[in-house]
């Protein structure tokens, strides 16, 4: 396993040597994230997935981010590092930031959104998703005047409007259509019979609109037969209301319903996209003595698969015990982890060596 503890002026050389190697084994760089990142070349990484230390809650090392007395200093220090992350990401790259919140004097500080808005407003990041990580369980909470906290945010940022994203790699397995009594039936039982009847009896469609609706319905059913669609819904004027909004000013669907008298919601044959709420149990830390972050491997898989090509390279500037690197290694991607704690780098290296 590659590791370095050289002067930070040599980080660039170590990284370039790593790029020339063919092995996906991670490279670990021991040092403070901002200093190390400043030595790395611009536009080098395809994806960054990281979970920085919480603001003022836990001491992972004797120094470093998260130990600031003022939350504003924490945000300032973290966003400086995020600025370097933006520089070293390729134009097609993505930045996934898992960040927890904290309370001070009974006030929920809103740290995740303060950081996200700072990155969007002052660094020019594009925020594509705010994912809610539902941890499904939490630690003991004895407060009698608030709800239990069991979620964190994962923000997906990009540098540009056009970026690498393999959505098909993260779709769920679709259910299959079938033929019953000579009729095509979609995965959820839609055969078109009900829609044909609604079109036929409609008083809101003209004869020409009915003719077009029948033809369009047959074409969609044929796509089901040929496997081009997994499922569909038909919205017909006077039968179903427009999805999302009835306002033509904000909804193209509403305009389509007015102009044509119908439209379709079509479901991809490769399955549905994941939602922005992820139910993932935290890592079991009961048997860990040196690192207590709940950041689990499953949290990294979707970001890496979707936004890092197979020949790409992943970055984690707060790698801790190397969960991001471990997942990247398992997925055959190169990766670079940075941490200022020598003991964490050793643990990370040992975890990844276990795969060899």
Structure description:
This protein has 356 residues and is of the alpha/beta class. It folds into two domains: 2-170 and 279-353, 3-Layer(aba) Sandwich (Rossmann fold); 178-267, no CATH class. 32% of the residues lie in helices and 21% in strands. The chain has ten helices and 15 strands. It has helices spanning 11-20, 33-39, 71-88, 111-123, 193-201, 207-225, 252-260, 298-307, 323-330, 342-353, and strands at residues 2-4, 27-30, 45-50, 89-99, 103-104, 107-108, 126-134, 151-158, 178-180, 183-185, 231-236, 262-267, 277-279, 313-316, 334-339. The strands form four sheets. Strands 1-2-15-14-3-4-8-7-13 form a nine-stranded mixed beta sheet, sandwiched between helices. It has a two-stranded antiparallel ribbon with strand order 5-6. Helix 9 (323-330) links the parallel strand 14 and strand 15 (334-339). Helix 3 (71-88) packs across helix 4 and helix 8 packs across helix 9 (323-330). The protein is elongated. It starts with a strand and ends with a helix. Residues 2-6 and 286-292 have low confidence and may be disordered.
Using brief descriptors, characterize the structure shown.
single chain, 356 residues, two-stranded antiparallel ribbon, 21% strand, disordered N terminus
Summarize the SSE layout with pairings.
Elements: E1 2-4, H1 11-20, E2 27-30, H2 33-39, E3 45-50, H3 71-88, E4 89-99, E5 103-104, E6 107-108, H4 111-123, E7 126-134, E8 151-158, E9 178-180, E10 183-185, H5 193-201, H6 207-225, E11 231-236, H7 252-260, E12 262-267, E13 277-279, H8 298-307, E14 313-316, H9 323-330, E15 334-339, H10 342-353
Parallel strand pairs: 1-2, 2-15, 3-4, 3-14, 7-13, 14-15
Antiparallel strand pairs: 4-8, 5-6, 7-8, 9-10, 11-12
């Amino acid at each position: 396993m590659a590791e370095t503890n050289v002067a930070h002026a040599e980080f660039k050389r170590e990284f370039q040597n790593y790029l020339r190697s063919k092995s996906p084994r991670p490279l670990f760089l021991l040092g403070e994230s901002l200093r190390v990142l400043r030595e790395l070349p611009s536009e080098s990484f395809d994806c960054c997935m990281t979970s920085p230390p919480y603001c003022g809650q836990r001491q992972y090392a004797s120094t470093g981010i998260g130990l600031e007395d003022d939350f504003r200093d924490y945000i300032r220090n973290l966003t400086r590092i995020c600025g370097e992350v933006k520089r070293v990401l390729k134009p097609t790259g993505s930045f996934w930031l898992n960040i927890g919140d904290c309370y001070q004097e009974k006030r929920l500080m809103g740290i995740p959104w303060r950081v996200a808005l700072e990155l969007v407003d002052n660094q020019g990041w594009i925020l594509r998703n705010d994912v809610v990580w539902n941890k499904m369980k939490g630690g003991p909470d004895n407060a009698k005047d608030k709800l239990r906290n069991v979620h964190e945010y994962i923000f997906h940022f990009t540098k540009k409007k056009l970026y690498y994203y393999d959505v098909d790699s993260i779709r769920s397995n679709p259910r299959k259509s079938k033929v019953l009594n000579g009729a095509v039936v979609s995965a959820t039982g839609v055969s078109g019979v009900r829609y044909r009847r609604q079109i036929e009896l409609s008083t809101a469609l003209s004869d020409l609109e009915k003719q077009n609706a029948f033809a369009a319905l047959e074409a969609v059913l044929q796509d089901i037969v040929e496997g081009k669609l997994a499922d569909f819904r038909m919205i017909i004027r006077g039968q179903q209301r427009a999805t999302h909004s009835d306002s033509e000013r904000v909804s193209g669907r509403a305009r389509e319903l007015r102009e044509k008298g119908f439209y379709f919601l079509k479901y991809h044959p490769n399955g549905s996209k994941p939602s922005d709420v992820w139910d993932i149990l935290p890592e079991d830390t009961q048997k860990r003595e040196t690192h207590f972050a709940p950041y689990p491997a499953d949290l990294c898989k979707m970001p890496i698969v979707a936004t890092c090509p197979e020949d790409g390279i992943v970055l984690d500037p707060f790698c801790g015990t190397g969960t991001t690197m471990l997942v990247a290694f398992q997925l055959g991607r190169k990766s670079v982890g940075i941490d200022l704690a020598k003991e964490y780098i050793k643990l990370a290296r040992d975890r990844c060596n276990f795969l060899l």
